[in-house]
Automatic annotation (TrEMBL):
Keywords: Cell membrane, G-protein coupled receptor, Glycoprotein, Membrane, Receptor, Signal, Transducer, Transmembrane, Transmembrane helix. It holds the Pfam family ANF_receptor. InterPro entries: ANF_lig-bd_rcpt, GPCR_3, GPCR_3_9-Cys_dom, GPCR_3_9-Cys_sf, GPCR_3_C, GPCR_3_Ca_sens_rcpt-rel, GPCR_3_CS, GPCR_3_vmron_rcpt_2. It comes from Parambassis ranga. PROSITE patterns: G_PROTEIN_RECEP_F3_3, G_PROTEIN_RECEP_F3_4, PROKAR_LIPOPROTEIN. This is Extracellular calcium-sensing receptor-like isoform X2. GO terms for cellular component: plasma membrane. Residues 1-25 form the signal peptide. It is found in: Cell membrane. Residues 520-785 form the G-protein coupled receptors family 3 profile domain. GO terms for molecular function: G protein-coupled receptor activity. Belongs to the G-protein coupled receptor 3 family. The chain crosses the membrane at residues 519-544, 556-578, 590-614, 635-653, 680-703, 715-735, 747-770. It is a multi-pass membrane protein.
């Protein structure tokens, strides 16, 4: 077949070359081209501003006369009328008429058509295609540049892959667009060989992947899914329930009414072809137009009047319930029309051709239409998208058909879904399993002989050495999911999500932070507020009894400052509870550091005051209080506190703490915490507090044996011992505690050290003020010193 097509192509090229060269070299044809010959072909024609061609199978076979090579051969004759092929012809005519009535598509321009019969023969189809490409007019007058509009701008057809290969290989040389509605060979997708070929039927490349037969449920290709010859009661025990793909069925509103308007031309001379409608009429009504063949009337044959009613006969011609090739013809005509419309709407100076030029109506060229046909994209009234890929192939779409064997013995081929490829490239399968007839018991979908389907939340793992249908279902790892049946792989959840307990979808990770609503947060908050309240109460007691000796001893102003700083220490612990935010993260450590430095500074100054008062009580020691009076005490506390404030300021400006979502501690939850930003800054803050605390402890320890009359050193020593012990234990506990527990450890250290200072330094004094007022006198206090 390949050699035959090649010889046809070579012969045609030689004929064309001879025609063109002879016309160009003959002076008498300087402004016109002469047609060397004319084929007598069956066809239907309609004039228009732009004419579209069509190749259809209207007859089943043809007869060629014997070649004597001594005279001009007679024209071949076609026989065996194909009603379905003629219905496709009328469908194209309907589409053209519908477009002409559409004021939005190709306005102010009428389409015509020239539709020919290929008689299921390559030679006749070739002749028809060349007739449309070159025209049937005896002389074609050209302009000075020897150019003119072609007879047809594009051809719908041919339905056969073989004929399409042969015809488009020649038409492609001149870039005449050819849109087939039934040629499926994947070889036609070769853009190098067939640059102007398009099709509205999917390529075979989209199919039948080889499928193994499972039991008695057959899987059919498009070639025999709707083959009526196999749909017999004898074959149903074997082929019943067959699942297959079929060319997409479409609905064309108004087509049946148009088909009913088909009428013959009783005055037409049948001897010169172009009598397709008359042939259809004779075939349908079994009559003959005048003049009838010899012996027709004598043999009892009827004469056709042209007034016969199509609705009175049973014919497939009027059956529009199963339009498949016709729907592709319809789409092909509209594709050409939309491409032509896009070409004519081109704005001068913004076109796609040389110099940004556009195609003009006066000089339409087929190759220009190929450019726009490649980019066409529209949706039919049936809802199907029509566009072509880089190879000229339409977006593939098939109906999925199922052979039903009904109880009364009849066979019904029923649509149970569709399969198509989207413009994005993915394949979409829609299947209505409830409508499928299964040809075995029980009447349910077949199951794998080895393994059940793997449910969502698992993945398939093939069993080595066993058939492909045998596999194990392995649960997805934590943090991974599969949301489809028979998934080959599990996919990881996004960073802020975790797998559900069923491992079939991702859920937001649980969040964790030291909350006010959990028991630990409630306890720490209660302790903080309790400490704040106790500080306020002690401050109120001291203010109320500020004139008593025990309050005035060792500088009552420092005691008030110390109580206020302890109150701030208790309150700053609340900043460590609740969801971390930018302002709480930046404020918590600064407030903690400054509050505790203020507290320890007051204790340090009180310790120094104890030593100064003791030295002042000895002869010659009055100068010690002079150089460390009230102003110096306030200045010392302020200076030491400002140093910590400067450390905090430098830390916040250089690398401040900030909220941080930590996913390293736990895979299934997010820990909200405050990243310290600068570890050095945090270490310097703690080190400065520790330095003051150790200094206070050492000075108090040296002054622990002074007379009780002046001495708070023992209490300060004990309080500093508690303070240092708490914060020394804090460091390793803080480092080893993850997430919210680190915040809880820090809050606990703040509260423990604050309660320790409050209880040790102010507990004994409150005891005397409230329960032993008789000891809150100067004599009693001085007497204690004498007894010692």
């Amino acid at each position: 077949m390949g050699k035959v097509m090649q010889s046809h192509s070579n012969l045609l090229l030689l004929v064309l070359y001879f025609c063109f060269s002879s016309a160009a070299s003959s002076p008498q044809f300087s402004s016109s081209c002469q047609l060397q010959g004319r084929f007598h072909l069956n066809g239907i024609h309609k004039t228009g501003d732009v004419v579209l061609g069509g190749l259809f199978q209207i007859h089943f076979f043809s007869v060629f006369p014997d070649l004597s090579f001594t005279s001009e051969p007679q024209q071949p004759s076609c026989h065996g009328f194909d009603v379905l092929g003629f219905r496709q012809v009328r469908t194209m005519a309907f589409a053209v008429e519908e477009i002409n009535r559409n004021s939005k598509l190709l306005p102010n321009l009428s389409l015509g058509y020239s539709l020919y019969d290929n008689c299921l023969n390559l030679g006749i189809g070739f002749r028809a295609a060349m007739s449309m490409a070159s025209g049937q007019v005896e002389h074609i007058v050209l302009d000075d540049n020897c150019v003119g509009s072609p007879p047809v701008m594009g051809i719908v057809g041919d339905p056969s892959s073989t004929r399409s290969i042969a015809i488009s290989s020649v038409l492609g040389l001149y870039r005449v667009p050819m849109v087939s509605y039934f040629a499926t060979c994947s070889c036609l997708s070769d853009r190098q060989k067939f640059p102007s070929f398009f099709r509205t039927i999917p390529s075979d490349a989209f199919q039948v992947v080889k499928q193994n037969v499972t039991g008695l449920q057959w899987l059919a290709s498009e070639a025999w899914t709707t083959a009526a010859v196999l749909q017999t009661p004898q074959l149903m025990p074997y082929l019943g329930g067959t699942l297959g793909i079929a060319v997409r069925r479409g609905e064309i509103p108004g087509l049946r009414d148009f088909l009913l308007q088909t009428r013959p031309n009783i005055h037409h001379d049948n001897r010169y072809g172009n009598s397709t409608v008359n042939q259809f009429w004779e075939f349908t009504f079994q009559c003959r137009f005048a003049p009838p063949p010899a012996g027709w009337v004598e043999g009892g044959g009827a004469l056709c009047t042209g007034q016969e009613d199509l609705e009175t006969v049973e014919t497939e011609f009027l059956d529009t319930t199963n339009l498949r090739p016709e729907y592709n013809v319809y789409k092909a005509v509209y594709a050409l029309a939309y491409a032509l419309d896009d070409m004519l709407q081109c704005e001068p100076g913004r076109g796609p051709f040389n110099g940004h030029s556009c195609g003009s109506f006066q000089k339409l060229e087929p190759w220009q239409l190929v450019h726009y046909l490649q980019k066409v994209n529209f949706t039919t009234s049936f809802g199907d998208q029509v566009s072509f890929d880089e190879n000229g192939d339409a977006l593939p779409i098939y109906d999925i058909m199922n052979w039903h064997w009904l109880p009364d013995g009849r066979i019904k081929v029923q649509n149970v879904g569709d399969v198509k490829r989207s413009a994005a490239g993915g394949e979409v399968l829609k299947l209505n399993e409830d409508r499928i007839f299964w040809n075995f018991e029980p009447k349910k979908p077949p199951r794998s002989v080895c393994s059940d389907s793997c449910p969502p939340g698992t993945r398939m793992v093939r069993k080595k050495g066993e058939p492909e249908c045998c596999f194990d279902c392995i649960p997805c790892s934590k943090g991974k999911i599969s949301n489809k049946t028979n998934s080959m792989e599990c996919t990881s959840c996004p960073e802020d999500f975790w797998s559900s307990p069923q491992l079939d979808h991702c859920v937001p990770k649980r969040t964790e932070f030291l909350s006010y609503h959990e028991p630990l947060g409630i306890c720490l908050t209660t302790a903080s507020l309790l400490g704040t309240f106790i500080c306020a109460a002690v401050l109120g007691i001291f203010i109320y009894h500020r004139s008593t000796p025990i309050v005035r001893a060792n500088n009552s102003e420092l005691s008030f400052q110390l109580l206020l700083s302890l109150k701030l220490c208790f309150l700053c612990s609340l900043l460590f509870i609740g969801r971390p935010r930018l302002w709480t993260c930046q404020l918590r450590h600064a407030a903690f550091g400054i509050s505790f430095v203020l507290c320890v500074s007051c204790i340090l100054v009180k310790t120094i005051v104890v030593l100064a008062v003791f030295k002042a009580s000895k002869p010659g020691g009055e100068a010690s209080l002079k150089w460390f009076g009230a102003m110096q005490q306030r200045g010392t506390v302020l200076l030491l506190t400002l140093i910590q404030a400067a450390i905090c300021t430098a830390w916040l400006l250089s690398s401040p703490p900030a909220p941080h979502k930590n996913t390293q501690y736990h895979n299934d939850k997010i820990v909200y915490e405050c990243a310290v930003g600068s570890t050095v800054g945090f270490a310097v803050l703690l080190s400065y507090i520790g330095l003051l605390a150790i200094l206070s402890f050492l000075i108090a320890f040296l002054a622990r044996n002074l007379p009780d009359s002046f001495n708070e050193a023992k209490l300060i020593t004990f309080s500093m011992l508690i303070f240092c012990a708490v914060w020394v234990a804090f460091v390793p506990a803080y480092i080893s505690s993850p997430g919210k527990h680190a915040d809880a450890v820090e809050v606990f250290a703040i509260l423990a050290s604050s309660f320790g200072l409050l209880g040790v330094l102010f507990g004994p004094k409150c005891y005397i003020i409230l329960l032993r007022p008789e000891r809150n006198t100067k004599k009693a206090i001085m007497g204690r010193g004498v007894t010692k």
